[in-house]
Amino acid sequence: MMMEAPRMVFMCLLILATFQQVVVSDEHQPLSKVAIHNIISELDQNAYVKANPSVLGLKGQNTEWVTLQYYNPKPTMDDWIGVFSPANFSASTCPAENQFTSPPLFCSSAPIKYQYANFSSPNYKKSGKGYLKLQLINQRSDFSFALFTGGLTNPKLVTVSNKVSFSNPNAPVYPRLAQGKTWDEMTVTWTSGYGINEAEAFVEWGPKGGKLIQSPAGTLTFDRNTMCGAPARTVGWRDPGFIHTGFLKELWPNKVYIYKLGHKLFNGTIIWSEQYQFKSPPFPGQNSVQRVVIFGDMGKAEADGSNEYNNFQPGSLNTTKQIIQDLKDIDIVFHIGDLCYANGYLSQWDQFTAQIEPIASAVPYMTASGNHERDWPGSGSFYGSMDSGGECGVLAQSMFYVPAENREKFWYSIDYGMFRFCIAHTELDWRKGTEQYEFIEKCLSTVDRQKQPWLIFLAHRVLGYSSAGFYAAEGSFEEPMGREDLQVLWQKYKVDIAFYGHVHNYERTCPIYQNICTNKEKNNYIGNLNGTIHVVVGGGGASLAEFAPINTKWSIFKDHDFGFVKLTAFDHSNLLFEYKKSSDGQVYDSFKISRDYRDILACNVDGCSPTTLAT
């Protein structure tokens, strides 16, 4: 029988997988609920899973829907379908593990997604028959669909489908733009299955309607040994393929460019992506309308409803959708940490980059590092948690380009027209006397406010102010040691707005310094703010955080919902701030700042330049 060979392969692999180490369940990652180490084989010759179509992407698509039809002679309400890629459940020896888990004898990969068998089939329990429509993205390998009984905690393999694959699983996919180290440089990063021994990676680009040139791209990858611990080193490991970055230099300001990703095989064949376009950044100080979107903690979600756990990332797709709908009026995006919550399940990074592709392929998608990207015990992170799932920053540093001097440190600055953005890395020490503190002061102090009047600070954890319940319990309404050193810099260099994620809600403060509001206005600021407005915008998509039942004097607006912020600089004197809900894209909080250059120069508390009576 056609299914007999695959069944025997799976039986062998899964018997080996029963020796797999136990991985502690992660409340943020639904794939962690699948107890791979408990899988046993109970293959039933009468059961089946049929997947159609078997070949995807025949017209160049990198996202396709697959229809499953399945039957289990002994159905239960806990039956589920797991999507595995590679189709043969990657099984290979593992390196020795860390002190937090027992050394495994073998590794077996977790599924890339799952769904309960009765999700689309309410009569499944009676008939044993069901169907599902699942969305697949091109991830450099083939797929199979396995039917399990016994729930997620005690899974028993019943049957496995035929294999499904994209026509070219190695194709270049999911471009991510980012501003380079100078204002006139754009970088484009993408993923493929082509290494340097198979093809030369490049970008073909140029002004729309003009001459195109080809620029070479660098190629990086990493292996399992680069991961710091489980599950990234074990059940969450999946080959990341190859990550390429091209540098498009000497751009003319505010000009539309087109580009394509290419791989020239050594037989002369060129594999192309589809064509994309972007608008180049404005010259620093340029007086033109400039629009910025900022949010944190979005995560990823599945359009087919799979992988849902505790409703953890219900706002993610809505946030993505609203930004896409407004994309023609957006110039640059900042996602300030907790990007996709892969938490050691590497397949989810592909899922995330596919989700944001319509955004990241068209405007610079700048990232900051959060606890779910970086933190791991003994890895040099400021916090000793296991929030990264063993990734310890490697995925965030590799999948996205940032113009940092050292991408492991992940702090950097961006000059975008009338804006200066200073991006901090809260998972490394930021306190006075550290290298990062010196960077922050240099970033804030070197901006020419006559040309770039809008000075913005961004970080993941709340180094300023938040009414979140867990921060209120600390007694300081901030990340411990958060603002004690930095508030002096914010005040001295007159930072306009500081943005944070980490807390999954929205909150805006008054202009504030040392817990005191420095301006009584709430929506129409004219002249010197005398302090910094602090904004928590961590409602990008991950499950919402509760506010403390305390009303502080400095908190102007709170919203327990998903959303993002849009800044619009009309000129050197007028800035519009808008908070939009992800559910409908409407504005629910806003303010304006109107001022002249002399207002920035004006003296404020602890922010006065020395003077002399001499003439």
Poorly predicted spans: 1-25, 90-107
CATH class of the largest domain: Alpha Beta
SSE-based structural type? alpha+beta
| Overall structural domain count | 2
Main sheet attributes: strand count, strand direction, barrel closure: 8 strands, mixed
> What is the CATH H-level superfamily of the largest domain?
Metallo-dependent phosphatases
Helix content: 10-25%
Reported CATH architecture of the largest domain: 4-Layer Sandwich
Individual helix count: 10
Extended strand count: 34
**CATH fold description of the largest domain:** Purple Acid Phosphatase, chain A, domain 2
Strand content: 25-35%
**End-to-end C-alpha gap:** 99 Å
Quaternary structure classification: single chain
Task: Please tell me how large the radius of gyration is.
Answer: 25 Å
**Gross morphology:** globular
Description of the structure:
One of its GO terms (cellular component) is extracellular region. Its EC number is 3.1.3.2. The chain is α+β, with helices and mostly antiparallel strands and 615 residues long. The protein has two domains: 119 residues, Immunoglobulin-like (Sandwich), CATH 2.60.40; 318 residues, Purple Acid Phosphatase, chain A, domain 2. It contains ten helices and 34 strands. The strands form seven sheets. Strands 23, 24, 25, 26, 27, 28, 30 and 31 form an eight-stranded mixed beta sheet that branches. α3 packs parallel to α4. The radius of gyration is 25 Å and the shape is globular. The protein starts with a helix and ends in a 14-residue tail after the last helix.
